[in-house]
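If your schedule permits, I should be very grateful for your opinion on a structural question. I would ask you to consider whether the tokens describe a fold that such a sequence might reasonably adopt. Thank you for your consideration; the sequence and its tokens are set out here.
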Amino acid sequence: MNLRQKLLLLFSLTIAAAVAAVAWTVLVRIRQVFNQQDQEKTALLVNQFQKEFQHSSQEVAAAVDRLANAERVRSMALELTQSSDASPYLTEAQFLAGEAQVDFLEIVGTDGNIVSSAQWPARFGYPEPAVNNLSSQTFLKREDLSNGASALGVFAVRSVRGAMSVRILAGKRLDQQFLADLPTPVGVETYLYSGDSETGSTGSPTRVGTQPLFDPERLLGVNGLVPNASRYQPLIDAARRSGQSSSSIVYPTSHRDESMSATVLPLKDEAGQVMAVLVVAASRRQMVEAQQHIRAIAYGVAATGILFAIGCSVWIAGRVSRPIEELARAAEEVAQGNWDTRVEVHGRDEIATLARSFNHMTSELTGQREKLIQSERVAAWRELARRLAHELKNPLFPLQLTVENLVHARGLPEEEFDEIFCESTRTLGMEIANLKTIISRFSDFSKMPKPHLERINAADAITRVALLYFPWKGTAAKDCDVTSAGEQKIDCCIVLDSGPSPVDADPELLHRALSNLVLNAMDAMPDGGKLTLSAKSIADHVEIRVADTGEGLTPEECERLFTPYYTTKQHGTGLGLAIVQSVIADHAGTIVVESQPAGGTAFVLLFPKAISTEGS
């Protein structure tokens, strides 16, 4: 991802995050305001319902009081106490109900049986337990009707004055008309659920064990049955079980804007049993529409901001990123060795200052490179001269002593002279051979031949080196074949992969490098030890490892080990490992050393694995 794309992404994310944060804050605040308004509306409506309920209760109680004190009712009650014949009064309840403007009215005789019933005339002679409830002004009661249904109402019981054993039971319905009389605000609906009977309106059972079932047809509103009434079931069932009011969000349909904030209020009888549940549902349409409107505005602002971010990123790309990309390309060219690279300077801002500084830097680097090359050449020649003088000085001193001995031996007898002459000539031959070796090594280091690459197996290369220094009986090397070499008692162990390890390499140069490493390992174990040669494939590389169990090297020695002319041996030019590193580098490989004091040393060579061309 380049700078232009990063800037575009940064601006877009920043604008989108800012718009999202503002929109979320506004939406949360709107939700809080609407919820507060819904709670206030609901609380107001619940208070209004309680007032209306109390008013209806007072009206029922007043109507029953008037009936109990009416002269006609008192006369009827006296006759009922004096005579057991109630037949003249079978229709009296209907007349009294119309006069008192109540929905339910029953006259109960001295024996506790119904004398006359306005809502169910054929029920005379049946007992009425509710007339014993004289301790309360009003109470809730479910009244059975002649059509087999039942209705919920507010009732009151009074004894007739002058005939206390005769009682009047009267009440008013809690139904759609009662809900219609409630002053509900716009967007608020009221429903009444009264379904705690043994059978529902369809005749099906409404209880499983002790838990009454929910009957959707018993949830009524001002306009009759409530659509999708089952959506209110969890809230109503919770109120029927707990007897406590609660609130929740109800979704009557799949549309979110038609959701309702519903509050339920249980209505209980004298025993504390829930007889009905009042549902107050406030529409959330305004809140949802406001949220959708704000969300649409946020999307629009975010889209506009992203377009603005694209424009800004394009402008910044022309002013900032493009010059930076040119500087990056110029820096890559400098890294590749083209130190004469220059960049164009536009304007006088910070980018232009950076471009001028880059051009000045490359100019200075070019000048410093020439000086550095000259200094390195002088230092290299000085170091070469010093090393060559040091290496030649060692054999020249015995040569000088030998020549001086020959001069002094000239005056000795012939037999002694011959003996000294023979010994001196041997010394001269050995030191001259040493000089030739030193000169040959310096010559090899100064002109390393270019490798002639061939497809070889790394396993064959290490096996060839092992056979040179550790001959054994047998035909082929296997995993950890062990042999001994010389008086040093060095054991050699070869570990090979089961599969081939192909590399493109010069067999002779690779053999020379591996031989050098094996000789160094043998020199590191003067008292004997174990030498391990291994070859294996690792991903797209081939690893060759030469490890010994010698004294190991310090971290400082490991860092300088491949430096030309550096050696840890008493006799050595310090060019062996430098030549090995040069050979490995010519094969596009790498060499590293792993060692620690008294822990042995391992040289790890990594070569690119040769790509098979079979079948291509």
The radius of gyration is 56 Å. The first strand starts at residue 104 and ends at 108. The CA atoms of residues 402 and 427 lie 7 Å apart. Residues 454-608 form a domain with the Heat Shock Protein 90 fold (CATH 3.30.565.10).
